[in-house]
Amino acid sequence: MSRIRIVHRTGFSYDAPATASYNEARMLPHSAGEQFVLQAGLDIRPAATQHTYLDYWGTRVSTFEVLTPHTELSVTATSLVEVRPAPVPRSDLGWDELAGAVGSSVALVEALTQTASTTPPDDLAELARRVADEGAPVGETALEICREVGAAMQYVPGVTGVGSTASDAWGDRKGVCQDIAHVALGALRSAGIPARYVSGYLHPDAGAAIGQTVTGESHAWVEWFAGEWRAYDPTNLTEVGELHVTVGRGRDYTDVSPLRGVYAGPGASELFVSVEITRVS
User: Given pLDDT bands bounded at 50, 70 and 90, which one contains residue 198?
Assistant: First the structure.
């Protein structure tokens, strides 16, 4: 079991004062499964009244507006989360059983539908078909697809952007965790396996001392359904465990972006981000 503190600061600076801005943040985890939130809150500057709800996908959303002129909008999310090791999967469906489950669940149909970000190129879909044709149960097939995707991709920051697609990243076999998750989702869905995008954090140094604060970043991985939802981190070729903290789930990154909004004003805006992660026990 781990207790992890995350301080995630992000926001926008403006060339000229924004007269108003309307925003929503998906930066706070909530308790579910093997994750228990001990403390979580947002500090917004300039100060703003928050309204919080769970969206359609079960992600905690904070909405707020700033109606006074401001040259910077800063949002700091501070969370303390207890994470237990993930249990061993208790079941693994056969393909006929999966088809029956999908036929009776809107949520699984949605998790099976490609988006503009996840639609795979032909050679990626062929890779997924080849693995599925080996005849293993759904969960084993999904794991092998994710491993092949992760092994084929290089983690290279700066070669893709927030709007890059699975096809873009797979073509160069390069990208960041967002891209690798989109590629894995495209492959899983093309093989007929419902899958969803997960956003959160990963403590980047398993060997760090208790109490040592390290520089981190937002992270992304995937979950697939094979009788129950199972998570896997294809970027790091590892099971999702007690160093991962989940914030949101959706069809792709656009459902879980940490901060987005609109503003009124004559100038351009620039995004800034910093993340600090501490294992406190």
Answer: very high
Q: How far is CA 114 from each of CA 50, 109, 122, 176, rounded to the nearest angstrom?
A: 33, 10, 14, 20
Structural domain range at position 52? 2-84+257-279
- pLDDT tens-digit map of 133-190: 999 999 999 999 999 999 999 999 999 998 999 999 999 999 999 999 999 999 999 9
- List the one residue out of 129, 118, 133 whose CA is nearest residue 196: 118
Q: Cα separation of 8 and 201, whole Å?
A: 10
Cα gap 193→92, rounded to integer Å: 12
| Bridge partners of residue 241, in order along the sequence | none
Residue 89 lies in a domain: no
Residue 104, amino acid: S
* CA dist., res. 187 & res. 118, Å (int): 8
Residue 105's φ and ψ, nearest 5 degrees, are -140, 115
Residues 157, 26 share a domain: no
Q: How many residues make up the chain in this entry? A: 281
Same domain, 55 and 183: no
d(CA 132, CA 138): 8
**Residue with the two structure tokens 């795979």:** 120
Q: Is the pLDDT of residue 89 over 90?
A: no
* Residue 268 falls inside a structural domain: yes
Q: Has residue 90 been placed in a domain?
A: no
